[in-house]
Design brief:
This protein is of the alpha/beta class. The protein has eleven helices and 18 strands. Strand 1, helix 2 and strand 2 form a beta-alpha-beta unit. The radius of gyration is 22 Å and the shape is globular.
Length: 421
Amino acid sequence: MTRFSAWAVFKNGLMGQTGWGRQWRDPEPKKEYDVVIVGAGLHGLATAFYLAKNHSVKNIAVLEKGWLGGGNAGRNTTIVRSNYMMPGNRKFYEHSLQLWENLSHELNYNVMFSQRAHVSLFHSPAARDAAARRYNSMRLTGADGELWSLEQLQQEIPHLNYNNARFPIIGAAVQKRAGNARHDAVAWGYARGADQHGVDIIQNCEVTGVIRNGGNITALETSRGSIGTKKIGFAVAGNTSRLWQMAGLGKLPIESHKLQAFVSEPIKPLLDHVVVFGVGGAHFYISQSDKGSMVFGGDLDWYKSYAQLGNLPIVQDVAECATSILPCLGRVRLLRHWSGVMDMSMDGSPFICKTPVDNLYLNAGWNYGGFKASPASGWHFADLIANDRPNSTIEHFDLKRFERGVIIDERGAGPDPKLHG
């Protein structure tokens, strides 16, 4: 497989771009693997990559019912940040951001990570105080974070609605190392890297059944035949509950909800930051892609669904949010919108843990945090599977925290996923 370099790009430019080979194989499934990861999204591919790279596991398969990156991986708004505060979350998301900062070099693939800053607007002294508490916690644990006054914010982003906003802007909390990346490139980079380490990525291979022998799973029934395995990792986002029931494990503290994303027609450079605001029941985030489109989103649809389609009430909601904070977008046309299926846990934080089945491991419950968490999620899930125990960073991300009553409630909104919008 070609290793990307300036020389390779120059050489293929002279050759009419005919010298590039396939970036990963399309193998037939084997009868048995040491580890099978179900789900070829960002978390599943990252897990396979780090299992092979960090732990030298040789016989790995990633099973995907559709195509590589065809689920939530390609249906998000690509924001990367680590401005979390709660024990467990704080260390984990900072590790993920550190992995993002070197990911293109590690994968030898440009994931287009742009550290353009994450700017969270606040609209009241109480919001400013809450932001100061969070960002001081970040600084005390080695991350970056700062508060911008209204004057500094106006200098950095002059075209926000400062004069006639329904919720007047008084400043912002900023993480400059945050930003966004290209979701497809991340999926392709991890797939390419995993394949280089011998991982079999099996597309169009839906898991249809789970074969158990006592306390272990011995094989997975798939649309491409039965596949034996010694260890299994579930990384299937909104479909986690369905596979969980196939394994005979009953119910999970997860609900599947739709989260929509939107993209406008391309316009000239306007916004060189990720801007977020949430007040008075509104929740909105926006950035500009390298192609010029405005990429934005808002709240969940407040009903459970596996649909990947949009709907008009949310279109109206995010359009109102967009024009309230950036009135200059009022005549910009919406190009398309879609939704991903979110696995919403009851405290808004994820699971990376062992399960009641000895050789089954769970990666789920990512809520809004899935994309930004991809590198650390794969890194720590691989470590869990390889060593059969959680390390200190993810020891809080287990299912039993609900039995203990030790929830990781980042927003303090209570044990209801509908309050984590």
